[in-house]
Structure formats: structure tokens, C-alpha cells
Amino acid sequence: MSAQHDPSLALRCLVTGATGIGAAVSLRLADLGHRVFVVSLDPGECRSLTGRLGERSAGFHAADLRAEDAAVAAFTAADQALGGLDLVVAVAGGSGRRFGDGPLHEVTLHAWEETLRLNLTTAFLTAREAVRRLRRTGGSLVLVGSVLATRPSPDLFGTHAYAAAKAAIGGLATTLASTYAPDGVRVNAVAPGLVRTPMARRAADDPVIQEYARRKQPLAAGMIEPGAVAAAVCAIGLAEGVTGQTVAVDGGWSVSEA
């Protein structure tokens, strides 16, 4: 992960999000022999995931990562538990539909701001606290965007504030990678397609969306499993010499004509 890191040693990892992609990333890192500290909003979900991590768990901290003080406290707890950080994966986020996200002409300022807080402010605060620590020794940061940022589906997924937030994550990864490469810090992003997570329950229950997913994501024959995204996150997060990249993990969405 850095010039100082011995690859034979377990990495010190922080993952935000305790269900869906976040849980899959944590479990994969643990399977690879690394130590994992979980940060997420729901303490029950955090506790459940850390139980599944077993001896590879370094603990958890329940925090609303939209709030600056909470984000700082979470990273302080991770520092104390792990003695430093080598890899940070920022998954926390979600749909803004409950705030009123949708087509731009219908979006209120409240819906816009709340959706960006949930998806972009969380990424900003996680990235900032990660970079402040990773600059000391080098390391890796992976952000999670969305295929909808660059390959929209206006009829089925017309949530414009969410798409804007996820598009900004790609730009953030690029500029952070450029700025902090001299410090030995790598920053990349993944852009998942339609993944089988708690956030995607609406899609999972909609036969029209399911048929669309079968055509649009032919490699997955429908919705992508979280483990497939976790595999890509870990690969790019652990790959020495790779920085400033956004990798689509979309089952073929971005190259299909559905």
C-alpha cells in the first residue's frame, strides 16, 4: 500500500457502510487476511457485520457521516483501534427518492441538498479524513460512484441529484489522485451498475426493471451481486501503481443497447 508497508502484513482497513456493498467489501478484505474497522449509521448493522468478520474485525463506530464532527470522531476511533490506516473504502450513501429526488424540473432545493449530503458530503468527509491520515505513510482510498453518472436511464432511474453527486465522486477521485500521488496516496473509484442491495429494493420488486436489468447487464443476467463489486473494489484498492481511475462494475451496462 505504501513504500513503508510490508505486503506480508495485514492491512489496516476502514470501510463505510455495513450492508450491501460495504458489507461485501469488509468480508472480502477479511477473507484476504486484513483487519477491518466498520463505520456506518446503524449500530445494529455495524454490530452484525463485525460479528461476521470474526477475528479480523477491529471494531466499529456508528456515525452519521453527513456530519463533520461525527466523521472526525469515527476516524479517531479507527485510528485508536487499528493504530493507523492503509486502506479506506467509502461506500456510505443511498437513494434520495425519500427526499424527493427525481427529474430536475420536479426536484426541490431540499431534495437536492439532502441527496448531495447523503452521497457527496459523506464522500467528501470520508476522503478528507482518510487523506489527512494516509499522507503520513501512503495508502489507498476507494470511492464508490454509479454508472448512472455517465450512462443514464431516464425512464427508470431519473434521479438527477443522485446522478450529479455520483458524477462528482469521479471528479473528486481524479483530482485527489493527482494532488496526493507525491505523498504515496492512491485514489480510485468504482462505478457500480444495478446491484442487489437494500437500496435497490424498489428495483428488485419491479418486473419491468428486472427485465431491463437482464438486457442491460448481460454479464450478471440481471442485478449484480455485491460480491462482484467488492472484488473490484479490493482489486483496485490493493493494486500498487494504479491511481486516478474510475472502474465500471456494471455487468455490461455501459456497453449494452438495452
Automatic annotation (TrEMBL):
PROSITE patterns: ADH_SHORT
EC numbers for this chain: 1.1.1.-
UniProt keyword annotation of Cytoplasm present: no
Keyword terms of this UniProt record: Oxidoreductase
Molecular functions per Gene Ontology: oxidoreductase activity
Coiled coil: none
Pfam families: adh_short_C2
Homology family: Belongs to the short-chain dehydrogenases/reductases (SDR) family.
Name the UniProt record assigns to this protein: SDR family NAD(P)-dependent oxidoreductase
